[in-house]
Amino acid sequence: MELKEIIKHCRSGSQLAFNSLFNKYYQLLYHVSKRILGNHHDVEDVIILSFTKIFKNINKVEYINDPCFVKWMKTIAINESIRFIDSKKKLEFIEDVRVVEIDDSLLNEPELDIDIVYKTINQLPDGYRIVFTLFAIEGYNHKDISQMLNITESTSKSQLRKARIRIVNQLKDFENGHK
């Protein structure tokens, strides 16, 4: 069934359509939240909250096309992930305006194992990981990130820079240890 049809049936209250939407987009939203939260059990909680919000508000969103609707669902998952973190603890963002050049040539290595990269990202401190995920993976700009996380744009940029530095350094350490 096409997404437009699934949405139409969800709006009329079809449980089968809700199940179809859940099954079709569970993995996508799971991975979006996992990159922010890093913990499977927390992600499961957030996915339930996200789909509950999606189902509750499906009549309020205008269907334009599949990518717009999917973006809407991803935004809900991202916002719920951020709310979850805020409810557990306050994120710490460290202001640091030093300019540091990084060598990102390692990121272009064809032999780089994607599982190692994801593991490295998941080991970042929360603030670094969330900003990195929203910017580098989800494609948000610093203005949007700063509004989502209630931080300044310069803090967002600083957190991204620090995340990149840490990722590159950890990948270099890994590469040097496996030569």
What is the fold named in CATH at topology level of the largest domain? Rna Polymerase Sigma Factor, Chain: A
For the record, the CATH architecture of the largest domain stands as Orthogonal Bundle
Content of β-strand = under 5%
Number of helices: 8
Let me know the average pLDDT. 85
- Tally of DSSP β-strands: 0
Describe this structure in words.
This protein is mainly alpha-helical and 179 residues long. It folds into 2 domains: 3-88, Orthogonal Bundle (Rna Polymerase Sigma Factor, Chain: A); 105-177, Arc Repressor Mutant, subunit A, CATH 1.10.10. It has helices at residues 3-11, 15-37, 40-57, 66-88, 114-122, 126-137, 142-149, 153-177. Helix 7 (142-149) crosses helix 8 (153-177). The longest helix is centred in the C-terminal third of the chain and has 25 residues, at 153-177. It is elongated, with a radius of gyration of 18 Å. Mean pLDDT is 85; it is low at 97-107.
Compile the SSE list and pairings:
Blueprint (H helix, E strand, L loop, with lengths): L2 H9 L3 H23 L2 H18 L8 H23 L25 H9 L3 H12 L4 H8 L3 H25 L2
Helix pairs in contact: 1-2, 2-3, 2-4, 3-4, 5-8, 6-8, 7-8
What features would you highlight for this structure?
179 residues; single chain; Rna Polymerase Sigma Factor, Chain: A; mainly alpha; 0% strand; elongated; 2 domains; Arc Repressor Mutant, subunit A
Would you summarize the structure shown here?
This protein has 179 residues and is an all-alpha fold. 71% of the residues lie in helices and 0% in strands.
